[in-house]
UniProtKB/TrEMBL annotation:
GO cellular component terms listed in the entry, alphabetical order: plasma membrane
UniProt-listed Pfam families: ABC_membrane, ABC_tran
Boundaries of every ABC transmembrane type-1 domain copy: 21-318
Protein name (record): ABC transporter ATP-binding protein
Residue ranges occupied by any ABC transporter domain in the UniProt entry: 357-593
Membrane topology, as annotated: Multi-pass membrane protein
InterPro entries recorded: AAA+_ATPase (IPR003593), ABC1_TM_dom (IPR011527), ABC1_TM_sf (IPR036640), ABC_transporter-like_ATP-bd (IPR003439), ABC_transporter-like_CS (IPR017871), P-loop_NTPase (IPR027417), Type_1_exporter (IPR039421)
Organism encoding this protein: Cohnella faecalis
KW Protease (keyword) present: yes
Database matches in PANTHER family: ATP-BINDING CASSETTE SUB-FAMILY B, ATP-BINDING CASSETTE SUB-FAMILY B MEMBER 6
Domain of life assignment: Bacteria
PROSITE patterns, alphabetized: ABC_TM1F, ABC_TRANSPORTER_1, ABC_TRANSPORTER_2
Transmembrane regions listed in the UniProt entry: 20-41, 76-96, 150-172, 178-197, 264-282
GO MF term list: ABC-type transporter activity; ATP binding; ATP hydrolysis activity; ATPase-coupled lipid transmembrane transporter activity; cysteine-type peptidase activity
Length: 598
């Protein structure tokens, strides 16, 4: 419930005064509708030949007095005229309110999207390592829309209560006792119907689980579509997808069934109660036809209000899981935030590493509950403007060490120093701006090569783009493309080979001129000729920036100034390439021997 209150507060913050104007206009609508109801009474009396009913009612008495001044023939047109004006006014107000509600809803959902997207982008890397990316996509689309809708429904609920209270007050002026009896019936019925609210909550929980599974299934199948197709797994996946969709359909149907059943009960009750009221009033109390009409009118106005409140209540509780999920993620992102995203002067905020980056006794576990350390007591020094290679078997901790050194992860114990100064929060932003990173599976946008290169350097000239491409040994193949720099490279760069993608991303990183450039298996997809070119590039870059390279292919790191060998999260060897290759009982020479055999 506190999560729901949080979102309703947000609604107040983001929408402000407009929200209250909307609630007040909803209440005003209820008032006008109620007044319109009053005018039915003199109209019906007049048609019946009488004219005294309703003289005690507020709003109506002065009007009835005016009517007595008119000639007989003008009475009905006057009543009808007022009735029509009221209905037209009500229709216009309704239209304004509809437009206003839509505006409120769009303002609110936009603000929530921005708030959550920014919170996610500001979250630390460790957060993303724990979370399924499809769950985050689902959160930003389905869950966020459900929560926004739910918060608006809470406001609609409040407006509807105000509306209903006004209708009750107006109905009481027509018949106090009758209105009390109807309101008591409505309350007892709401108590009976609370089990539908509980069912809605349960189905809402299930809706969240199924929708998460749906997003995961879609995202995993398209991310791995090549593997899926190559291994002929389409049918298996389709069968699972069908069963998931069956469950989603059944759940949605069940929700509609719950809602329509509760509404059906309200309608049954309405038919039975109205018949009972008329029977009792006519047979036992011998009330007049005009009053019977009042009973019918009051009942037909009030009862749907109760049914509407029930419906809104069911919808609100079904969106409670969405509120909870969003808040959980928000709390997690707040617990560990990256330094402020907004950089006023990017150049000023970028650190230059002048002497070294050092790790002192760094330990780290991906799961703090587990006894397994990804890094244990790591002590290494990365001299500035030199090339350091990190090698080790799969799972040795190379990527984790890179994540610590680039500031993406914080050590569990031990410390990282840059130019002799601790890498504390205040320095993290400018340090992170100084790091360029090229991964094994580089990320490219579905746009032109030019746009992809300019992502981190929007003001780069064509000359600079070409120079960076040349550095990354990518100039020849880009020139050979039909539209050169303006070639669109497809979703995640699928129209390029793995090696071409790696070189474009390397060029993009070089273009930013980072002070520290990390290549994480970034040349794994290159052939020997292009790998030799990249080695030349690294030679040239080495004097300009600090290079850290992870490579399984040891030939890539032959010219490294220093090689660090990791095993089970610990540094087991370090030194120059030739020195390590001569340590015959070391892991490094074992790795070299395996690669020579291969
Ligand atoms: N997100 C994670 N959650 C839990 N454990 C993880 C996570 N990422 C890595 N690990 C574990 O941490 C250890 C080190 O992993 P890391 O990815 O750093 O190794 P690596 O040397 O880079 O391996 P590779 O060469 O295969 O990429 C491994 O035992 C791995 O299983």
């Amino acid at each position: 419930m506190s999560d729901l209150v949080y979102f309703v507060r947000k609604l107040h913050v983001y929408v402000g005064a407009k929200l209250y104007v909307s609630i007040i206009s909803a209440a005003a609508l209820g008032f006008i509708e109620g007044i319109g109801l009053y005018f039915l009474i003199p109209m019906l009396n007049l048609l019946n030949g009488g004219r005294n009913e309703g003289e005690n009612l507020p709003f109506l008495a002065p009007f009835l007095h005016m009517l007595t001044q008119l000639p007989n023939k003008a009475e009905l047109p006057a009543i009808l005229g007022v009735f029509v004006v009221l209905l037209l006014f009500q229709a216009v107000l309704q239209r304004i309110q509809q437009i206003q509600s839509s505006g409120i809803s769009q303002t609110f959902i936009r603000a929530l999207r921005l708030e959550f997207y920014e919170a996610l982008l500001s979250a630390q890397w460790a957060f993303f390592m724990r979370r399924r990316s499809s769950d985050l996509q689902q959160l930003l689309t389905t869950e966020l829309a459900r929560a926004a809708q739910g918060a608006l429904q809470v406001m609609a609920f409040a407006a509807s209560i105000a509306f209903t209270l006004i209708q009750i007050a107006l109905a009481m002026m027509l018949s106090f006792k009758l209105t009390i009896v109807i309101a008591a019936c409505g309350l007892s019925f709401a108590l009976f119907a609370r089990r539908f609210v509980q069912d809605s909550k349960r189905l809402g929980e299930r809706m969240t689980d199924l929708s998460q599974a749906y997003y995961a299934s879609v995202s995993e199948s398209f991310n791995g579509i090549k593997d899926l197709k190559s291994n002929r797994l389409e049918l298996q996946h389709l069968t699972w997808f069908k069963s998931l969709n069956d469950r989603m359909r059944d759940n949605a149907n069940r929700f509609v069934t719950v809602q329509s059943t509760s509404q059906l009960y309200y309608k049954f009750a309405s038919a039975i109660l109205i018949a009972a009221f008329v029977w009792i009033a006519f047979e036992w109390l011998h009330v007049k036809t005009g009053q019977l009409l009042v009973i019918v009118v009051i009942f037909s106005r009030l009862w749907p209000r109760f049914a509407g409140l029930q419906n809104l209540g069911e919808q609100i509780v079904s969106s409670l899981p969405a509120f909870r999920n969003l808040r959980t993620v928000q709390r997690e992102t707040e617990a560990g935030r990256e330094p402020n995203l907004y950089v006023e002067d990017a150049e000023e905020e970028r650190m230059v590493v002048r002497t070294s980056i050092e790790c002192h006794g760094v330990s780290f576990r991906h799961d703090p509950e587990s006894p397994v350390y990804a890094l244990r007591g790591v002590r290494v020094k990365f001299p500035a403007h030199r090339m350091t290679a990190i090698v080790g078997k799969s799972g040795a901790g190379k990527s984790t060490l890179i994540d610590i050194v680039t500031g993406l992860l914080r050590p569990e114990s031990g410390e990282v120093k840059v130019d002799g100064q601790l890498l504390i929060e205040e320095r993290l932003k400018s340090y992170r701006n100084a790091v360029g990173y090229v991964s094994q599976d580089p990320f490219l946008f579905h746009t032109t090569i030019r746009e992809n290169l300019k992502v981190g350097s929007p003001n780069a000239t064509d000359e600079q783009l070409r120079e960076a491409l040349s550095f990354a040994a990518a100039d020849e193949f880009v020139q050979a493309l039909p539209e050169g720099l303006d070639t669109v490279i497809g979703d995640r760069g699928v129209r390029l080979s793995g090696g071409e993608r790696q070189r474009i991303v390397l060029a993009r990183a070089i273009l930013r001129e980072p002070s520290v450039l990390v290549l994480d298996e970034a040349t794994s997809a290159l052939d020997n000729e292009n790998e030799a070119k990249i080695q030349c590039t690294l030679e040239r870059l080495r004097g300009r920036m600090t290079l850290i390279v992870i490579a399984h292919r040891l030939s890539t790191i032959r010219q490294a100034d220093q090689v660090i060998v990791l095993d089970h999260g610990e540094v087991v060897q370090s030194g120059e390439y030739n020195q390590l290759s001569n340590e015959s009982d070391g892991i490094f020479s074992q790795m070299l021997a395996y690669q020579k055999q291969a």
